[in-house]
Amino acid sequence: MNKLTKELLKKNNTREKAIFKSNNDIYTNMIVYLRGSDLTEYDQEVVRADIIELILDGQQRGDDIQKVMGGQYKEICDEIIEVMPKKTKKEVTLEYVVISLNALWILGVIALVKNLITNVISEENQMVFVLTLGDMINVAVIIFVANIIIWYVTQTAFEARADKKILTYLKIWLIATVILGAIIFNSIYIDTVVVSISLWLIAVILLLIFITGKMISGKVS
What we know:
Elements (H helix, E strand, L loop, with lengths): L2 H13 L5 H15 L5 H21 L3 H5 L3 H11 L5 H34 L5 E5 H23 L9 H25 L3 E6 H19 L4
């Protein structure tokens, strides 16, 4: 995220605090839906600023968000998205690279802490980072599932699921249980060692991944 986008994001975060609680749920759904669009981060914030302005102007007149937007929230968002410039292939690629690098360093830090604790408990003082085939599969699964969840949340932001809450929760728990079970299975039974290097070296590698992700993120609008 570049400097201009960060400044607009900060401004929008401040201004949206003035939105009444009664309008906030629908406003949040609109923004979540926009986050799943193919607009750049900067253009998303531009649209967000316009939506905030419309809501705040309506509040001053005594109108709620339904009267301001006419109740056609998804349609309004689709119309806005349609006329706005879309991400280029380069921007899309860079965005996926940033997401992948961020996921790698976060999961890497978790694995680093896990290996550090294992080394301390074993009292061997080898300070070695061990990465198994199962660990690598788990990383791929977690990144894939995370992207699916983000896509699902953004695409269903306007769907009323009040009558299906129990079924929805059961589905989520079932999927979560299956994924967790697969991760545990991979960690225990797919234990072929792929990487075995110094903990200090992996710490440096993770730091470089973090810095690289930040540098690329700064170039993405």
